[in-house]
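Preliminary data (for renewal application), magnesium ion complex.
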Amino acid sequence: MFSTGLTRFTRSVAIASVAVGLSLIAAPAAHGSVVRVDPGAKAAGKPIWGTSQHLPPMMGTADYEAGPQNSQAIEDYYTTGQARRDQSAVVRRARSWITEWVADNCGGAPASCAATVVFDVDDTLLSGYPYYEGTGFTWNSGSWDAYVQSCQSPAIEPSRELFRSLKRKGFVVILLTGRSEAERSSTADCLRQRGISGWDRLIMQSPAQESLSSAMYKAQERAQLERSGLRIVASIGDQVSDMSRGHLKAGFLMPNLMYFIS
Ligand SMILES: [Mg+2]
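Predicted structure:
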């Protein structure tokens, strides 16, 4: 997942950004509320909805990982149920927004207008928390590959349920991930093991795309989907780079305190 970003990790940026982030983690009133968030020009004028956990780092331009110095606060967020409540809140907002958009633009019949929803994979449909919790919230390619190959990621249930419900209603559902083509079979197998199947396409990063930022790679792929006639109603991911640079109607930002990918 960090195949394009690892070399750009700047630890000093990571520490500074997460230190700001933790002050928000300590503000319980902000938990569970979904708000219109503003990552600046990179949103390309499209609405993005999310929880406050993303507010400090989403303005960032450099990738980071949280690192062991913040382990306790991050573990508390994920193990007390707060992460799940925030994930559920974002998914609820996405569900109602998508339903409303299709009612207004497609007479409530998504298949009639090629209405499409794009999902990211890691920390959107499949959780990387067990991996990061075990590494002190640091990433390396060897241990991550083993984690992917052995399918240790649990499903993130609220987004899995949204995926299934959109499929039933006739939406085109696309998975767009920074995982590499080399991980296609292990990724597809793991998604199916977790009860996620029937996607219309699983788009993975080709070797030629590894020099692109995640934001650029994903926006280019959405543009290509639009050229093929699909209407991208929403993109759901845990990173602003899952929904920046346009080619969608709205973005829905799942919480992720563990790392940031530009
Ligand atoms: Mg992700």
